[in-house]
UniProtKB/TrEMBL annotation:
Protein known as: DgyrCDS5527
Gene Ontology MF terms in the entry: GTP binding; GTPase activity; metal ion binding
One Pfam family per UniProt: Arf
PANTHER family noted in UniProt: ADP-RIBOSYLATION FACTOR-LIKE PROTEIN 16 (PTHR46688)
Domain of life: Eukaryota
Key words, A-Z: GTP-binding, Magnesium, Metal-binding, Nucleotide-binding
Residues reported in the UniProt entry to bind Mg(2+): 13, 41
Binding site for GTP: 6-13, 64, 118-121
InterPro entries assigned: P-loop_NTPase (IPR027417), Small_GTPase_ARF/SAR (IPR006689)
Originating species: Dimorphilus gyrociliatus
Length: 173
């Protein structure tokens, strides 16, 4: 089981729907339709993603508003994906606090983690190096015991989603 977490509005539900649709229905990450409307996840949202021809992985999104009880799911996860909205400077400090909490949690010390810098299609997006200036992202990653990878995505236009599936293939299957 993969956990998908991140602040409210960072794009988890859209990302998960895209991954589910692209791997199990359309078999393509390009020519995506307009993003479907999403509503804030109050609770959790479980979907399957096909990571290779025969193997499906279950991904459970935990809504941002559920952050105080995310920890109740840490004992059932093999890996974790954390989504950051790169287009919203005002919410970066919230993302930072949530991320630090996750990385420091005793049950997650050996869990592989994918940091997803989402919404890179947005004109307001902050680059990886700007995120380093704001929340010292590479420093955080460098000082953690977990194996952490960072990918940039747009759940809106599909950029980077194949690489997310690739990561899942190696760390979740
Ligand atoms: N421009 C752009 N918008 C995105 C992207 N990903 C998600 N969004 C939009 O961001 C808004 C919030 O997306 P959700 O997927 O509902 O966010 P969430 O992380 O699931 O939020 P919670 O369920 O409240 O925790 C929606 O309007 C999405 O269409 C992206 O890559 N680019
Ligand atoms: Mg959601």
């Amino acid at each position: 089981m993969v956990l998908l977490v991140g602040a409210s509005g960072s794009g988890k539900t859209l990302l998960l729907r895209r991954l589910n649709y692209a791997t199990l229905v359309s078999n393509s990450f390009s020519s995506l339709e307009e993003p479907p409307l999403t509503i804030s996840t109050v609770g959790t949202n479980l979907m399957r993603v096909l990571v290779n021809k025969r193997q499906e992985v279950e991904v459970r999104e935990l809504g941002g508003c559920m952050a105080p009880i995310w920890k109740n799911y840490f004992n059932v996860c093999d890996s974790l994906m954390f989504v950051i909205d790169t287009s919203d400077k005002a919410k970066l400090s919230c993302a930072f606090c949530l991320l630090i909490d996750i990385l420091a949690h005793p049950q997650l010390q050996t869990v592989p983690i994918l940091l997803i810098l989402n919404k890179i299609d947005s004109p307001q997006k902050l680059s990886h190096s700007q995120l380093n200036d704001y929340i010292h992202l590479d420093g955080i990653v460098h000082h953690c015991p977990q194996r952490i990878e960072i990918l940039q995505t747009s759940a809106k236009d599909g950029t980077g989603l194949e690489r997310v599936v690739d990561w899942m293939k190696h760390h979740c299957a």
